[in-house]
Protein 1
Amino acid sequence: MKNIARGKTADFEDFIITRRINILQSMDRFSGTKYSLLDVGCGNGGSLIKLSGLFAACHGIDVDENNLKLLQSKIKDLNLNSVSCSQENATREFCKGRQFDRIVSFEVLEHLDDDRVAAINIFKKLRAGGKIAISVPNKWWVFETHGAYLPVLPWNRVPFFSWLPRGLHDKFAKARIYRKKNIRQILHTAGFENIRLQYITAPMDVIKWRPLRRFLRKTLFRKDTTLIPFLATSIMASADKPDTE
């Protein structure tokens, strides 16, 4: 896929972060103060910092130096001794000599040069018996999550653009988009087992008029997950690394 754009990290107050954490906490034995956590593509640490109280130690990696500076400043301000970060690329070797009990990666794979290599690298950094949670954009959401390089049209989030056949979509899209079977296959090939998939309900963060946003969150978009693909911006995939010990 050509012209993959770097993603915009979620802001600390974005409701999507709350949704992701709610889903993680609903997973059996995912969080716990005896576990170490790695956040691949941590951005400015919006998720990492909120998750830090649920784990013994947390580390974030990202390729963007400016994101990491913001995260380091936040770590210092909040005196979070259990949180650290480093500038690294998920499609290469990272966190040399270290493995983690739990790994998360939110809306990152779609921006990488090779999402399959990244999944394999994540598998290597996970301890035997460990668990992952990865979210990727959902093809069946009404709007193209990351936009597209479209000729003539000044607005790049054209409705139903993501529903186009993959070859045509990928020609103009700024990032990959996934169906459940796509991310399942990537994780299976990497070596993960017990793969579980959920649709993350659209958080409505893009709606700036608060009365409308509150109304939508209390009605169609009330729950953190949905069985209706058209109401979901993302897919949350969780999986295990076989316990070979």
Protein 2
Amino acid sequence: MEPTIPESNDPYCSTSQAAKLLGVSLGTVQNMVEEGVLDAWKTSGGHRRIKRESVQALIAKRGSAQVSPAQSEAGLSVLIAEDDVFLQKIYRKTMEAWGLPLTIEIVGNGFDALMVVGQRVPDVLIIDLIMPGMDGFELVRALHGNPALLHTDIIVVSSMNREEIARRGELPPDVPIYGKPVPFHELHGFFRARNNQKLRQQRGR
């Protein structure tokens, strides 16, 4: 069940309240404000006051996530969160050349990925860890364990090594981590198996 903001005559909430409701860190909420994802203003003391309705709207958008029947029948839907423009092109060109029934969407930061997931849940989500604004760590933590993503495979592809990742707070153990250069051979095998699995599930309905 999605959280709701308690009734109040105050149309604004604090950064910490927004972070708790959204399930992200204070830093991420601050970045969301700076990026215009959340509506807010600063007090004379430098504190952020965030519009309650903008937080609730974001929660509602995430909570309404679902896969439409049209997407389900069209093969695998893939969302890639990668800020490197060159790699974005490589991802799309390589994966389209596989000849698999894939619907590919690419975003450049965690905020945009969160918004996309709030509108339509992908079958596979590939995440880079180092991105502007909301990075991959925050994105994984915000999405991992969300019941709406129960059937979504979350994969990390990053230039960071295991020791660097551990110093940043680790990632859930069931999230596979691949290094860069992007291991397209391994990903190709995974996508073929995942596509076959989805086809079997559709035929068994």
Protein 3
Amino acid sequence: MKEKLKPIGFMFLIAAFFGGATTALHLTSQPTVQRNRRLLEQRAYLEVFGMLDPERRTGAAEIAETVERQLNFEETVRDPETGEEIALIKAFSDPEQKELKGYAIRFAGMGVWGPVEGLLAVTPDLEHTMGLVIIAQAETPGLGGRIADPVFTEPFFDGLLVARPEEGDRFIIIGGMAPDHQESRRRHVEAITGATQTSLAMGRMINQRLRAFHRAMAARE
């Protein structure tokens, strides 16, 4: 009987050893994981406002200092239609926070394969975009996953029109033929080739967020 139990005991010891090692590795790596996650988030905040110099590598300390001195996360606004609280990320052109650079809001929704999360920044008058950054997505690499690439995000850094449109119209038009109407053309973004459904999903979630944001900011005034 003892001989039969030896292999079981050995397997138990092996499992306990590797289980303990895995747990220890997980626990000891958590601070590093949290720091990296925080850094990526802070980079996204600055990137969406065009506050990172693409020509040079910006260190973590400088990023954290810029976020601390030139961004403000204290204000929320309420959408009067849904009652939702929308957190405002306010960026300033100066460390004294006297000159407002723009607002950023978070948006989220379902893509084709999973949740998509991002940041959208607009000018202080709420009329033009300043940038768009995808924080998380699970779309197909090389297809829908390109929503995080410049091929999709670049137009948002070029100042798309997002002033309140006519009743029933869209803030942003993603995909389809370029509209004939001049104002609509200024709202148009090309869909990603081969990822029509992901592009349409992005259009839905961004438009939904912009509608709520404009309502909340109008109520704020």
Protein 4
Amino acid sequence: MDVIEIQKYLPHRYPFLLVDRVLELEPEKRILAIKNITINEAIFQGHFPVTPVFPGVLIVEALAQASGILAFKSLERSPEDGYIYYLAGTDKTKFKRSVVPGDQLKLEVEIINLRNHWMKVAGKAFVSNELVCSSQLTCAEQKVS
């Protein structure tokens, strides 16, 4: 999936769209996506100008966005159907090292439990096959008017 198709499943846009490409997707199972970290990211103007570090909360958000794509594809829905997925919770989140400009985040998400209106997943983010973040995320579906 390229970024044009990704935008069909996520309501996010620049500067908050944090999934650049989907490499693999198995509905009801897993997704593998990437986020390229560049110095041009708006966040680096303030975090931190002298020593730029990609914020951990945005790594978790990138995992959540990948989870949203996986949920939509697994349940055969899209935002056009009037649905949206929200990050409803995180558990056991750990950060192992900093992510900096030039890194490519590999986002791996596997479904733990999938229900009609929510999903629990295990998410991991890697840079060069080195684990940088792990988290269990809960995503909740909501019908929008």
